Amino acid sequence: MSNNLVIRPEALGDAISEQLELYQKSVETKIDKCAAKATNELVRITKDTAPFNAKHHGRHFVNCIASKKEKGRIGVATYTWHVKAPCHRLTHLLVNGHPMPNGEHYDGDPFLKNACDKVLPEFEENVKKAVKDGN
Fold it and tell me: pTM surpassing 0.90?
């Protein structure tokens, strides 16, 4: 069945604005859900694949991997992957490598890049679907 909605020409601008606002809210909600899912997946993958040294810190670094949700400037949430203190400085060294006390060099482990490479394509596809589907 079709909706036979009659809109006067002088009210057309308001009707279009109303429909665009509904579309915007719907897309924002869907993108927020996609971002939350992608961030949770990124945290899970990095916790599973992050390097750890059982001799020194055990899984302490892995336990510090987390995400947080913040309200953005225009009302849209921002999700951030991060490592909580006191391990936050260690991330750069684990990813990029560093000299060891015994004179050797730790080459680094691209666990974060690998996790992002898995999560981002799916997130991008989900956002495209959210924008395309709208309501």
Answer: no
